[in-house]
Fold these 2 entries.
Entry 1:
Amino acid sequence: MRGTLHLLPVGLGEADASLWLPAAAREQMAKLDCFIVENAKTARAWLKQIGTSHALPDITMNVISRKTDERTLMQWLEPLTQGVDIGVMSEAGCPAVADPGARVVACAHRIGAVVRPWTGPSSLLLGLMASGLDGQRFVFHGYAPIKPAERASRLRQWEQQSARQQQTQILIETPYRNVAMWQALIDTLRDDTRLCVARSLTTPQEWVRTLTVAQWRQKPPPELDRHPTVFLFQTA
Amino acid sequence: MRGTLHLLPVGLGEADASLWLPAAAREQMAKLDCFIVENAKTARAWLKQIGTSHALPDITMNVISRKTDERTLMQWLEPLTQGVDIGVMSEAGCPAVADPGARVVACAHRIGAVVRPWTGPSSLLLGLMASGLDGQRFVFHGYAPIKPAERASRLRQWEQQSARQQQTQILIETPYRNVAMWQALIDTLRDDTRLCVARSLTTPQEWVRTLTVAQWRQKPPPELDRHPTVFLFQTA
């Protein structure tokens, strides 16, 4: 009997867990004593907070980075073949979406383990819901290029793609570059393209607004500096 | 003071709400007495189940379809301008993703209402997490064409896009056509493309498997008939 790889959500910021964590996911976390995580310190603090049923020093906590090689991942997943369940937790939100957790999941499939995704907060999905933009067809690009000329050209390319495929475009930026990204969007996109800014989702600083680019230009810039933000846009 | 438009999740199938519903979202649902929903009957049954604090006949339940015009939507949102909160619920999962709810949200932004997305189950996101495919860049296409030749050509086009942009491709199908879609994927995609089948997520019938197309061809077809399924693939 193979163990199960549980993909467990963590919060997106300072927000009470009752806002975003289903009770059964919390119970599942509290039961496990073997994890693969992005940051051991925050993972231990979180397990302590939800009330793990194990002594913290007895919990195995393997820390994954982009550099962790496949052989190491396979060793960490070895307990699955003996029927031990393992939890995967990201630094924020749902594991294996925009983080190195996907490689852990891929290895688990190779050894035929059961993979169980638990419901939790995803800034991409919450942003899409709250944007009012088309949720029938959408694309997540990750990060845009940093160099201004390259970035503008890529944004124009994505805008054309939005028009051609009637598709919502989703991107993120490193929080300290949010203001520059907002400016680039405002300077580059067409007047009638709808742009959504979804800031600090699930937290008390949550703020979501969708306006046309022309409308955004007439307003003072939103406060985005160092707040996790998702940008979404769709052509008229 | 404007009211808030609450985007509230419902379940993906027969699954206990503790598995997928945060407690605060449940409390928010129970408080509201004005809704915009895809199906009034299932919405009323659900409110009854979670224990609404209102008498069912006192709850306003406006039913949206793809044909609902914008003037009607604006009338339904009128209470927001008087400070009344409104809930939006889909037939399954998160509202405004792959359903008509996005138009309600767009109207709410036009009148400057606060839009609040609540964490809940999305088969697209849960499928992506559990697939082990790249979550750093992905696209959701909705449905593929139904006619076999057109469908095969589109799948090949998406496969090329996956290779070119290192992007996970996500699609859904009407449940009674799942078996045909699985066959089309197996017949059309390259041997080494990884294909994930994510069935009946969050329910007791949940089943997720990622294999290369060559590996899938050597197995008996999975049981997908009439089970909600998400298909995901990525080239090697």
Note: Residues 4-117 of chain B form a domain with the Cobalt-precorrin-4 Transmethylase; domain 1 fold (CATH 3.40.1010.10).
Entry 2:
Amino acid sequence: MKAPNAEIVSIGTELLQAASADTNSLYLVEQLQGIGIEISYRTVVGDDRRRIHQVLQEALDRADVVVVTGGLGPTQDDRTRDALADVSGRRLVLHSKTLKGIEERFARRAVAMPEAAKRQAWVPEGFVVLDNRHGTAPGLLWEEGERLLVALPGPPREMHPLFVEQVLPVLLRMAGNGQRIRARTVKVCGLFESQVEERMKELLHGDHPPVSLLARPGEVHVRVTAAGRGEEVESQLQLWEEKLRNLLGEAVFGVDEERLEEAIGWLLRRAGKTVAIAESCTGGLICHRITNVPSSSDYFKRGIVSYSNRAKEDLLGVPFSVIERHGAVSPEVAVAMAAGVRRVAGTDLGVGVTGIAGPGGGSETKPVGLTFIALADAQGEEWCEHRFRFDREGNKLWASQMALEMLRRYLLKISGQD
Amino acid sequence: MKAPNAEIVSIGTELLQAASADTNSLYLVEQLQGIGIEISYRTVVGDDRRRIHQVLQEALDRADVVVVTGGLGPTQDDRTRDALADVSGRRLVLHSKTLKGIEERFARRAVAMPEAAKRQAWVPEGFVVLDNRHGTAPGLLWEEGERLLVALPGPPREMHPLFVEQVLPVLLRMAGNGQRIRARTVKVCGLFESQVEERMKELLHGDHPPVSLLARPGEVHVRVTAAGRGEEVESQLQLWEEKLRNLLGEAVFGVDEERLEEAIGWLLRRAGKTVAIAESCTGGLICHRITNVPSSSDYFKRGIVSYSNRAKEDLLGVPFSVIERHGAVSPEVAVAMAAGVRRVAGTDLGVGVTGIAGPGGGSETKPVGLTFIALADAQGEEWCEHRFRFDREGNKLWASQMALEMLRRYLLKISGQD
């Protein structure tokens, strides 16, 4: 049996704006590939009834499965329901159970229901209505012959559970016992993309190497895909991961969704160490990243964003004479910040970062992007120097990445000494 | 003369991964729309020579302009050059000027050139080679009859200047004196999407209303498009913006790329006020956002991420008795944090945020998402309570948004009193 192929259609004029990332279709790609359904196309179209109709018609002509997201909301620019009616040749009818659900939802929140909210209860006749526990717009599913058309609301927290709970079972039935395709991403820090490629040269040949590289700010991601039945896929990926870990060593900080700040959380827990952060040019980003990890308060105790010389003196005890002699952006100040925050917070470790994020503030001797990062423990301090060449936010991101990486390498080293 | 229509093709297996947002094509949409070129499709395809060839062939059959990004890098999985050769019926030839440029680039950085880097100097015969000042892979341009095929490297800092400097002029020539389509986004904080829609009801009718709404975390974006020649478009947009500002009043904090933290920067500057931030549950995010704005050190003096009770006592002078009596997540502690950070920093204003970001740490009386935000000035403090229902990062983001909005409304109020 041939595995079905799918197309993903994302609807919303906002997706044709530079600020909007089409994260829904990326989620769907991952989910569909995971059950062996190949995605042939991803298309984006604005909130235009005629154009949505046309795109859906083309997709239904080519694919076995068409998954649509977006354009199901209450506002007048949401046109997906109309286009679904057009392409299926059905009329829109009022779905009373959905209407009741919407009314109850507003009543429960003690908010007056806007008239427009009712629009979401109109569905094309004969479509299966998928109950949305996290929002007001239901999902819609239409099976005709061998083809499946599914429409899901755009907000991810509504779309994800609807897909997993109500669409996936139908797709699994269609996909039958075909092959599964799975991917694993091994994430690397502290090596350039070309260095990673050099180390894994023999894995990257042929027209369809199962391995691909992706450079991210301060990271390189190595993605491996494997195809097969049942547990076979899992063990193939496991072998690949081991192979990559052998080739790349300590540079690997995690796999798949794991983030650098999570890896550091684990290492701090394992070492039983606590940390405090003193940030200048990164402006709070390092603390923000560390505290994105649940329960990080177990090892992260405080952060100081010392955005003025006075803050560096008052809060971190950086002597004014050091700032005066070496400048606020200097190894000496980074070291004093790391040691200072460690001392006042009473933590095992302290990190200090000072630099020039830009675009202003640079000089010939201290250009924009120049950054010093220091790490303090009970034995003393170490520091390193970087020169980033990005815009303000890029320089902040890279500096936060290099500070976290310095902390990670330190934690690996001390755990190796145990 | 009919304006040309374009398709955008993004190449890269990583773009079929959930972690990758296809920001390049969004950039290109904005650019192309800006000069009156309509985008009919956006397609994403993996690093597969045969499939890229097929997608390019289809796109060239339908569109006047095809812009391709990605897959031009040095690694073996980059297949775009081969597919461009396939679809144009040309062979790949070594472009010596490009090779020399690559060699010099590595020499300048005193890094050994990996053998693979040379792959980027092979180009389809007869294609125009677009010099890339920010990277090693050149852009490629092929004009055949009325059709234009352009391939640009994937990294945005290489792609953007190449597009603006070398592709845009060619496109402007093609687009001739056709209509320009421009958009403006008016950004709102402090109103729900349904409230925004209610206020601008009469603007949202018909099948192609020029106005659309988009909900973002803690913000609503109202996007207006206008078409016309020359300055006509600009004055239409200006009228729309005024209309929206009248309907939405103070809730409007900016337009287009302007961010809430930038609006606050302006208001602080205008009022001549300085601010310090004490964050608990937001973990540094508020400081990070404020410091994303260039020269924010003029008004932002310090931030305290008090992730432990001891930090709240030591750094902010929050009395232990207050924490003991009311709990760390309470209006009393938020107020003491705001007043404390203002006092120790010597700033005009202080902001304090305490809450439960989740997923752990909640209780029946103090559930996950409960957040208190306080603002202190020389006259005293005010506070507000929120209950967010997102995941950890969503709760952090919303809390940062509501804290910035509270500060914005305060600054609007005091500037109104002048």
Note: Residues 5-175 of chain B form a domain with the Molybdenum Cofactor Biosythetic Enzyme; Chain A fold (CATH 3.40.980.10).
